[in-house]
Every structure is written in C-alpha cells, then in structure tokens.
C-alpha cells in the first residue's frame, strides 16, 4: 500500500507537527507550502492521501481541492481538509467540492492517524494504473501549467453550473414532459454538437419520447431511432411508445450505430438520454462525458415534469384507457355546446359501446378485458380528428364529441370508428387474439328542440345506440 502523505500548509509549525505525527505512524510525508506547490507535488508524486489547509497564499485549499478532484490524473487521490475553520458552511462546501474527510485543528492525533489510514486504504483499492505518457507530462509541470489546469477546470465547472442552472430554470417552468424535454434538449444542443437528441421514459403500461432534430433527418431515421429507444428502455413488444419531435424533418438518412445512450435515474420509471455526436471521438458513452455529467439534473427536470403531468392526468384522464374521464368529457361537451350555440356551428356526439364485452371477460379474464378496452380506445382515438374529443363514458362505453360536424358527417365518422375497431386484431395475454366490434349511436344538436343541453344530446345518442344493438350490433344508428 502506498503510504506517502502530502501535507499542504503555509505554517511551518503545523507542517512540523503533522510530519512528526504521521511519520510516527509509519507514513512517508511530503510537504508543500501552498496550494500551487501542493498541486504540483500531488500531480507529480501521486501520494496516497493529501492533507491540506484551506487558507494559504498564492492558491488556497478550495482551488487545490477542485483541481485534484477534477483532473483525471489526481481524481483518485483522497483529500483530507485539516483547518482551523469549524463553521458549518466551511465543512459543507469542502465536502460538497469533493473532500473525502474534514477535521479541525483541535483534532486528536489518533483521530488524524485513523482518518489518514482509512483514506490510504481506500486509495489503494481504487488507484488506477499510471500511463507512461501521462506520468512524463506530470513530471514536467510547473507553476504556470498548474494554474492553467486550475483555470481550465474552473471554466469547465462554471460552464456545467451554467448549463445546470438553465436546465433547472427552464425545465421547472415547463407545462408537461414533452415541453420540459424540448427545453432541456435545446439547452444541451447549445453546448454539444450532435445531429439529434432524444429522451425517452417507460412506465408500467406506456412509454413516451421526445426527439430534437439538429439536422433535417428523414422518416426512416426517426423510425430506426424509435426502435433503438424501445430497445434501450427494454420495452415489452406491443407497448405503445408515444414519440413527439422538434426541429425540421427532411430526407437526410444517417446511421445510428454511433448513437450514445445514457440511463436517466428516474423514480418508478426507466429513462434514457440518447444523442448522435457529429464527431465520434468528441464524446464518450460514459457518465463522465460532458453530457453524462448532466444526466442527474436532466433526470430531475424530466421527473418533475412527468410527475406533474401524471398528477394532472389523474384528475382528467381515465386510468386504464388514457382518454378523458366521465366528468371531464361531460364538462367539455357542455363547453363545446355553448361555443356551437354562440357561433352557430353544428356539433354532434357519437356514443359507442363494445359488443359482447362481458363474454371477453368471462372467457379470457379481466386482464384481457382491460387490454381490449385499452387498445380499443387507442383505435377510436386514431380514427378521430385532432380537434375531436374522446372520453370513457362508463364501463365499455365511449363518448366522442365532434365540433363543427353535422349529423350526416357524424354518421360517416361513426362508420369510420366502427370499421377501425372491426379491422383491429387485439393480442391478449397468453397470445390469444380477438376481434372486437361495437355499436354506435350518433346525434346532433340541430335535432334538439328547445335549448340544447348535454343531457338531451347524450340521451338521444344513447337511444340510437340501443337501436343499433337491437338491429344486430356492429352498426351505426341513425
């Protein structure tokens, strides 16, 4: 075990006391009078432990500590802060800056020896092999080179702190996950030269991703990226992955073999950050890379936005189908009715009920029934316009609100929904497959006599839904 200890202190008396104490415990002691000398000695001699004061001329203990913990040549060397400062702020900042231990100068000799011994044993277990070229470079270090290394590392720390602050400031103000992801990736795009960035998150039954294109990439690359993200998240085949993107689409096709994927530490979810550097040698796929050092802060921003979004969804969406719940779809229908009355626009609703749903539960179990509801709702949503509203009305019933649609157009829309369900094959747990059908009732506000209301409009659609069931199911009425 390496038993060399570097003592950095501007007081000759303190250095002499430490020399005798550590030498008596069997350590070889090296000495430096300030932070600049200490940095040169630490980088050149590679001691097992550095013991340093905080207040010193030329360069004090904090820049020395930052340099030793940031420079790859010395980051493995444990640092013990030994100072007359006993206040909480000094201890906090020392440990936050990277110190491995902190003692005040009223220490007991046995306490000092025990601490240095522990740190030396820790260093012996983690000490990397020295590279000959690096060792030769370190031996040639002078005071100017040391100060240049300090300045370089301080600049890097300032850049990282600025990026982190921007990430937190923008991300915490975001309205949802995709908004936070867009703002965060735009920030990364200003400091990292990459062709694309992406973040993806997988939860229990769903996953979502946001892609920021720095180059105009084509659909083929986006599809390949989607597959890579699903693989990185470990998604079970069939798990829906909602992907949104920012930036300009084009026809440029690129290989994703060099894409870097870094895990994001999220709460009760799996996350990944992916980016495609323009220069394959510029960034490594490690947590120590410029982007990797920011993953914890990025995860905090995305987690906050994701959980805030989920909290909002709990009050507005049905937990199983991810469509609007009964209360919200009814409230939105009332709002749309008022808007249609004010501007004299048509408005229609379509009420849908899955056929023979009880038989699916009885035959395959309730988990299969949940899968049918989940996939069926997704099919209905895909068959509607972006401006249409869809909510789970109750059980296996769904209500679609169609603004600016008259009864004839509502009938066409309902037929499109019917065909979408009829042509969709649902794969159930255990690899069983079923086709689902549904019955539909459509109604328009123009059919109502007197002031239209949500109750009257839904009631009319409900009567027509039962007419469709009485006519043999899997059809639309009127």
In short:
By secondary structure, the protein is an alpha/beta fold. It is built from 15 helices and 17 strands.
Question: What features would you highlight for this structure?
Answer:
Beta-Lactamase; 47% helix; Rossmann fold; 3 domains; five-stranded mixed β-sheet; 478 residues; Alpha-Beta Plaits; 20% strand; five-stranded parallel β-sheet; alpha/beta
CATH architectural type of the largest domain: 2-Layer Sandwich
How much strand content do the residues show?
Answer: 15-25%
Radius of gyration: 33 Å
- Compute the number of helices: 15
What integer is the average pLDDT? 87
Distance between the termini: 88 Å
Class based on secondary structure composition and strand pairing: alpha/beta
Main beta-sheet strand count, sense and barrel state = 5 strands, parallel
Helix content: 40-55%
- Please identify the top-level CATH class of the largest domain: Alpha Beta
Description of the molecule:
By secondary structure, the chain is α/β, with parallel strands linked by helices. The chain has three domains: 138 residues, Rossmann fold, CATH 3.40.50.2300; 157 residues, 2-Layer Sandwich (Beta-Lactamase), CATH 3.30.450; 152 residues, Alpha-Beta Plaits (2-Layer Sandwich). Helices cover 47% and strands 20% of the residues. It contains 15 helices and 17 strands. The strands form four sheets. The protein has a five-stranded parallel beta sheet, sandwiched between helices. The longest helix is centred in the first third of the chain and has 30 residues. The radius of gyration is 33 Å and the shape is elongated. The termini are far apart. About 1% of the residues have low confidence.
């Amino acid at each position: 075990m390496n038993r060399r200890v570097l003592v950095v202190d501007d007081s000759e008396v303190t250095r002499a006391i430490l020399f005798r104490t550590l030498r008596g415990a069997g350590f070889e002691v090296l000495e430096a009078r300030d932070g600049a000398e200490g940095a040169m000695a630490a980088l050149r001699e590679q001691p097992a432990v550095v013991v340093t004061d905080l207040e010193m001329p030329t360069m004090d203990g904090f820049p020395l500590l930052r340099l030793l913990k940031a420079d790859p040549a010395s980051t493995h060397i444990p640092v013990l802060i030994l100072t007359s400062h006993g206040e909480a702020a000094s201890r906090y900042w020392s440990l936050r800056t990277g110190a491995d231990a902190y003692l005040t100068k009223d220490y007991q000799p046995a306490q000092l020896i025990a601490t240095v011994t522990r740190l030396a044993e820790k260093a012996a277990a983690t000490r990397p092999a020295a590279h000959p070229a690096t060792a030769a470079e370190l031996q040639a270090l002078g005071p100017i080179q040391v100060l240049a290394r300090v300045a370089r590392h301080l600049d890097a720390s300032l850049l990282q702190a600025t990026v982190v602050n921007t990430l937190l400031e923008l991300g915490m103000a975001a309205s949802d996950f995709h908004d936070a992801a867009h703002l965060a990736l735009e920030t990364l795009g200003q400091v990292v030269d990459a062709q694309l960035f992406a973040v993806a998150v997988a939860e229990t039954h769903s996953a979502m991703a946001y892609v920021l294109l720095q180059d105009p990439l084509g659909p083929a690359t986006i599809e390949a990226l989607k597959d890579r993200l699903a693989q990185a998240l470990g998604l079970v085949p069939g798990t829906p992955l909602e992907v949104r993107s920012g930036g300009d689409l084009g026809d440029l096709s690129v290989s994703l073999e060099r894409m870097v994927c870094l895990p994001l530490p999220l709460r009760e979810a799996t996350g990944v950050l992916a980016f495609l550097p323009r220069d394959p040698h510029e960034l490594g796929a490690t947590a120590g890379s410029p982007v990797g050092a920011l993953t914890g802060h990025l995860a905090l921003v995305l987690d906050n936005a994701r959980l805030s979004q989920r909290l909002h969804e709990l009050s507005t969406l049905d937990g199983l189908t991810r469509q609007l719940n009964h209360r919200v779809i009814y409230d939105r229908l009332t709002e749309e009715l008022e808007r249609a009355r004010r501007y004299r626009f048509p408005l229609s609703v379509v009420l849908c009920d899955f056929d023979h749903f009880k038989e699916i539960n009885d035959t395959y179990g309730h988990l299969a029934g949940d899968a049918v509801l989940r996939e069926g709702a997704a099919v209905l949503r895909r068959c509607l316009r972006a401006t249409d509203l869809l909510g789970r009305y109750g059980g296996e019933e769904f209500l679609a609100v169609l603004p600016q649609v008259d009864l004839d157009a509502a009938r066409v829309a309902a037929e499109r929904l019917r065909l979408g369900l009829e042509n969709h094959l649902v794969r159930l747990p255990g690899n069983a497959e079923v086709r689902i059908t549904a019955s539909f009732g459509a109604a328009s506000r123009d059919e109502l006599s007197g002031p239209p209301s949500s109750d009257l409009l839904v009631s009319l659609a409900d009567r027509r839904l039962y007419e469709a069931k009485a006519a043999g199911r899997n059809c639309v009425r009127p």
